[in-house]
Amino acid sequence: MLTPADIALCGLDPAGLFAPIADRKTIGLAVSGGADSLALMLLYAAWSGRKPKAIVYTVDHGLRPEARAEAAMVVAEAEKLGLSCRSLVWTGDKPVTGKQSAARSARYGLIGQAMEADGAEILLTAHHQRDQAETILMRLAHGSGVSGLGGIRTFSNVEAVSVFRPLLGVPPEALATLVARAGLSPASDPSNTDRAYERTRWRDALPGLAELGLGPDRLSKMAERLQRIDAFAAREADRFITRHGALDPLGIVRIDRTAIETADPEIKVRVIERLLAAASGGHSFFLSRIEALAGRVAAGEHFTATLAGARVLADANTIVIHREAGRVGLPTASLSPGETLVWDGRFVVAAAKAGTIGPATGLTRKAFKELTGKALSGPVAGLRTAPLLRDRRGEIAAIGSLEVGEGFSVTQIPLTS
Question: Which residues are involved in binding ATP (predicted)?
C-alpha cells in the first residue's frame, strides 16, 4: 500500500490534482494497466476527504493476446483499492491498418456508453507532461497555429465524452516511481516503442531536444501560455462575429466585407475559419488554406471559392458562405416521435411526430416564397443545401429553421461559442 510519504516523495498532491472535479457526484477513471493510468488510479484512491464516487473503466481491445489478462489485472487492483471497476470488451472485426485510431474511437465509445449507464459525469485520463510535449512537437511539424500548439487541454470532449486530464503537468517518471513503490507491475504496450508511429519517433527525439533546453517541462509551459493567448483570441473572434456576422435560417453565413478586411490578421483567420465551420458543419481545416483565403479577402479580391465543404462568395460589400452541394452527399434520415438529431453538423431537429429529413434539393426561389411567404435573400445553392423536413404524409414542415408546419422544432448550431 502507498503511504503519504510515498506520494510526497514523488512530488504529487492528490487533493490538488483532483480539486477541479471535487464537486462532481460520479466520475470515471480510464485505466489501461500501463504505469501512467495505474498511477492515476492509485492517486485517486489515496485522495482523502470528500470526493466523487469513482468507477474504473478498462477496455480489452483484443488487439494483443495479453489484453484480456491486462484488463483482469486492472479489475483486481481496483478492487484492492476499494474502487468499482468495469471491464469492457471491443468485439467484432478489427482493422488491419489505422489500429491506434480505431482502438481509440472504440475505447471512448465503449467507455462513453458505460458512463451514461452509470451516471458518470466526466472521465479522468492519465495523459502526462511528456504526452503534452510529444503532441506539441507533432503539431508544430504539421504546421498548426496557436490553437494546435496549445496542445492537449486539461478539459475537453473526446468522441462525445467529457474528459479531465489531471496529470498533464506531471512527468511520467514520477508516475512510474509511484507505481513501483506500490509494488505493481504495469502492462507494457509494444506499440509505444514502435517507430512506425510518429509519436514514438518524437518520443525518441525528446532527450536530444532536452539537452538543448527544449524538454517536456519547457514545452508544457509553452502550451499553457499559448492556451491563454488562444482563449483571448477566441473571445475576440466571438465579439467580432457577434458584431459583424449573421446566420440566416437556411444556414447561410454573412460577414461585412469592410469589417473583415480591416480586422486584425489573427482575428480575420479565426473568423473565416469559424464561419466556414458554421456553413459546412465541419470542424477540421488546413490552416494554410484558411490563411490563403484570408489573404484574398484582405487584398480586396472579388471571388468565389470552395473550401472545406463550403462555398465562399466575396463581393464589394459582403462575404457569403453556404454549404457546398454535390461533393459530399447531404444526409437523409427518418425521424421517430421523440427523437432528436443533429443534421449535417448545422441544425438540431427535435421531432414530436414521425417524418423525414434531407436536403432541399430542387427547391426554387418561387417554391420557397410560396411556402414561407418570404423572398429568398441568398443564393439558390444555399437553399438547396438546407434541411427539408416532411411529415409522414409528405407535407413540408420546415425548411432550415423556418417551421411551416407542426410537429418539428429546428434550431441552428450558433456561430459563437
Answer: 32-37
- 295 annotated ligand-binding residue: no
Q: Is 37 annotated as a binding residue?
A: yes
How far is it, in rounded angstroms, from Cα 39 to Cα 180?
9
DSSP notation for 395-413: -EEEETTEE-SSSEEEEE-
Q: Please check if 35 is assigned to a binding site.
A: yes
What's the rounded Cα separation, in Å, for the pair 417 and 411?
A: 15
33 is in an annotated binding site: yes
* 417 belongs to an annotated ligand binding site: no
Q: What's the predicted TM-score (pTM) here?
A: 0.90
Domains of the chain: 4-220 (3.40.50.620), 243-323 (3.30.465), 333-412 (no CATH)
Q: How far apart are CA 389 and CA 405, in angstroms?
A: 9
Stretches where the chain sits below pLDDT 50 are: none
**405 assigned ligand-binding residue:** no
Contact 175, 39 (CB under 8 A): yes
